[in-house]
Amino acid sequence: xxxxxxxxxxxxxxxxxxxxxxxxxxxxxxxxxxxxxxxxxxxxxxxxxxxxxxxxxxxxxxxxxxxxxxxxxxxxxxxxxxxxxxxxxxxxxxxxxxxxxxxxxxxxxxxxxxxxxxxxxxxxxxxxxxxxxxxxxxxxxxxxxxxxxxxxxxxxxxxxxxxxxxxxxxxxxxxxxxxxxxxxxxxxxxxxxxxxxxxxxxxxxxxxxxxxxxxxxxxxxxxxxxxxxxxxxxxxxxxxxxxxxxxxxxxxxxxxxxxxxxxxxxxxxxxxxxxxxxxxxxxxxxxxxxxxxxxxxxxxxxxxxxxxxxxxxxxxxxxxxxxxxxxxxxxxxxxxxxxxxxxxxxxxxxxxxxxxxxxxxxxxxxxxxxxxxxxxxxxxxxxxxxxxxxxxxxxxxxxxxxxxxxxxxxxxxxxxxxxxxxxxxxxxxxxxxxxxxxxxxxxxxxxxxxxxxxxxxxxxxxxxxxxxxxxxxxxxxxxxxxxxxxxxxxxxxxxxxxxxxxxxxxxxxxxxxxxxxxxxxxxxxxxxxxxxxxxxxxxxxxxxxxxxxxxxxxxxxx
Length: 558
Description:
There is one protein chain. By secondary structure, the protein is α+β, with helices and mostly antiparallel strands. It has 15 helices and 21 strands. Among the domains are: about 15-55 and about 65-185, PH-domain like, CATH 2.30.29; about 285-500, no CATH class. About 35% of the residues lie in helices and about 20% in strands. The longest helix has 25 residues, at about 75-100.
């Protein structure tokens, strides 16, 4: 393959490049493995049938058309083996065809991906719309030295453009140059910050991406913590219980073990898949500080290198399962512009995990580095209280009123919220504890829900809407009057936060006594129905009066 420049200027805007020549093998290995498996199974069955003479009797050659008579006299393993070989050749030709007619172009302003010959498709992404550039390395492409470069674009429900596959070194250089061209340079916050759980030597483990010259290792999850966290999950305990039950039943009822396995195998596969997926996104997890933000590297079989630019995190959710409470561990999910989707999307859900197993020190580091907060320690302390605390005299959270116990007797003391200079922090959950952290300037909209029981108890739930993602922040069981006041104040806080970022002024420097004076009246604040004026008419025309409508040309009443 010819040498490929990283970025092309206007003078080379018509240059297109193909993917790596090994891409067909990396993309079509599953289909090839299926074909080989079918061929191997057929060959073995045919050879056994020829030896034992128990081959199934097919139609007699005399009953077949002459064109098929030749094939009917062939041994089954030869016939099916030949068909499998032809299928493999067709699949190989199709993969080469797709590779040959798949090209990409990268300039200083956009990236394009063109596929197909008869039905041609071209996808284009503007670089100024790119929110993140991720590198993924599934098992076989990683063995071949290849990598996939994914362009995540704002407001996209899925990856806008994915280059499958490039040489790993070329993909890393291309990502580095593109991030520089996009201009996502961010100041380094928390210089010299490190985690007590980082490796002493600061080196990545075998099989992971080594730290580059512009990267600084700031966090490395210990392997024993990762394994212990996966063992202390409900899914793993249920998996062990099901496996133990199958073993015991096999000894007690050996004659019906096959029927039992038919029912247990799907459950075992589902639970095993959940455990493996959680292990996949936490194995070898490392966080690096880069000029663009933080870079995450993780993966057991599929290696992923993900860049989270500073300021692109829209909302966070900290979850603490019941079996992790004794150790103080949490998992952090985020909404990031460009990823879209929710947990129902496997790819988006995996990449929405910012920290798979974090302690309190890791949370402080995350708030400083990923969000760029100068008061990251203060926000981390409030988040830790949101996960561990509940309503009491020493709480820094505003809690639900006592009458909320009629609808949430167990969880009522866990509901609450607090507000800092930059964030809204809300907590919920008793057994499975949750804490939501949303920046003021990232809230897209606010809604208030009041069902019939909530109206009877004068309560309200406030939802803080962010971009599409797994985090759904809310403040539950608030007093109605407090909820109305919170919405007005939060809207003003959001306006002021956006003004501070953009440099614009909306005429409100603080919340003071004039909270809400710059906002339109909310539905519950209206004293009367709004009135609307009649539309203006062009010059020389006037609205008809009642008398002119009711009287005819001669002035008589119509």
